[in-house]
Amino acid sequence: MREFINLTLGGVITGAVYAAFALALVLIWRSTRIVNFAQGAMAAITTFIALSLIESGQSYWVGLAVALLAGLVLGAVVERLVIRPVEGGPELNAVIVTLGLFIAIQALISVLFGVNQRAFVAPFSTIGFRVGDSSLALSPNTLFTLGAVLLVMVGLTALFRYTRVGLAMRASAFGQEVARLLGVRVGRMLTLGWALAAVVGSLAGMLIAAEVTFVTPTYMDALIVFGFVAAVLGGLDSPVGAVVGGLLLGLLLSYVRGYVGDELVGLAALAVLVVVLLVRPGGLFSTTQTRRA
Amino acid sequence: MTRSSRRLVGLVAAATVASTLAACGGGDSGGGGGGSEENEASDVGITEDTIRIGAHYPLTGVAAPGYSEIPTGVQAYFDYVNANGGVNGRQIEWIYRDDAYNPTNTSQVVNQLVLEDEVFAIMGGLGTPTHNAVTDFLNSEGVPDLFVASGSRLWDDVEEKPTTFGWQPDYEIEGKIIGQYVAENFPDAKVGLFLQGDDFGEDGAAGAKQYLEDQIVAEETYVPGNTDVRPQISALQAAGADLVLGFNVPSYTALSQLTALQLGYDPQWFYSNVGSDPALVGSLLARFSEGAVSDASLLDGVLTTEYIPTVDTPDNPWIQLYQRVWEESGQEGELTNYRAYGMSQAYTMVQALQAAGQNPTRDDLVAAVEQAGADWEGPGFAPFRYSEDRHAGYSGMLVSRIAGQGSEELTPVLVTDNGDAEIEEYDGEAATPPESGIPDEEPVN
Questions:
Q1: Distance, in angstroms, between A178 CA and closest chain B CA?
Q2: pLDDT grade, residue B25 (50/70/90)?
């Protein structure tokens, strides 16, 4: 029973981590209709900037603030300089550009910060809470991770649903020309979408780093795959879907690891992806058929 | 023979010399011979005054921490030998390339080493999946493939891989020695296995099970790259294992320790040699010691095995030699266990080159290891198992307990072999390095 409880709690935690990553993907998808394969590398570089600050004696919170700020700038710069020239062209062009960006940024991290594994100390204790004489796989730091992910989810939902900016962003992504005719400054909205997504991505990078404990320039690679599966599972359009998708995937993979075997984790994720795409291509939380303007 | 002008620097210049030589036709002189002969270019990668050795290592990526230090140790020792006249008057050229622990890259860089750099032999290629990708190529090209840096049993296959040789004790005999130790000293322990999901974990577990079949209560594997080991550690905890044997790499030693701490799980840990380097694991865990983890090393009291001297024994004559060699080489950083490992391999390599004779061919080098290797005295605690029928490396090791940054020996050196072979105490003396620090082996022919 204790194993089941710990596998469940562990699944929720890794699920929250997948969800954090999926949220950034959803944000960019909603605001620009591009799937950003460079998301992981962008998050990794901001995390390394923060880690360097933390290692030089700054507090975690200073590191976090700098990481988020760096993400904001990085997202905006990438959109203006790299993505803008291919926006509006065939979708595949933008996807290939983000793949190239992924490789380039990862190489840049190696150049700037070296390739060695580095320890990332979580902001709160990672020692599990004790119940009776046994420990749960639930610690103050995992509560922090969960809380941060839920906060972002609520924030994004509110942004898109209740604010004019959110509406304008959705309009820009949905139909650029229509939006422009209605007075939306589409270019700005696209830049804003990328910048915000990179901020969420940076937060995800920080949360994930604390969970995986040791980071290298490629530490996000394994999570990119699961983040994508989580996003597709929940529906690329829905922040709530991303979080639910992440949690479901985290639970499933944790049970697979604990009861079946670590070697089947990748296969299980693939199975989820195939089933979702066959049965409900829009994801669990899609409300409408795919729309095109 | 004229040397082509040296354009560019370093490797490129060296490669040019080698290709000029190859064009001149490195004739097969029949190898070997007494000290009075002239040096000649007896095979690919050998000139009158140089001999070129190559290798592949993970210099970047997840496997790089620790392992990327090995070639610097090799470099230091070869530099030392070169400064003292080289081997048979030849300077050793040491070329190593980065494969990032990715077998696809390994194939590519080894192709480069053999076809472009034209090395005489490969020495100390690191990793099981990586090196396994190139043994067919090396054997079909007839390139000596000495002292693979992995404890897999794949390298001991004279029929299929006549030029490939292992070096360190294989994981199966390590598993046997660990298994017997646990069975004798912890007869009531419930044993859990924490295994890397490849032949490292499988061979180790197979060896341990010969002695522990009845005591094992759980067997958990991880796939390298999956950084979440909570499910595995939870399962070991749930099964009630109070002694965990880990056949894992160092970063998973660190991860399993932290995860166990988070789960309040405190069994006796026993990590195989590969995963237990206290300095590397300690450096990974160091930042955690400021907060949750107490100041004492997390690895204190952990059991492990040793088969060559380690840097925490500064009085060991081999370590004193290595310390001197390392300081003379002037490279950055300290002497680490990984660098000592590289130097130990380089020492064996020099023995092999000496035994191969003054003007060796590649075949002579292979024959020299087969004929003389079992008698070589060197840093290893136990003898090699080399013969014309066997290409297996060291035959034994001892069990020790980590204490702080050092360790204490718990058993004498134990030697055994694969399969049902008995485990016995080694009755030989520990070798000390020669005064000069350089071996002096007779040519076998």
A1: 45
A2: very low
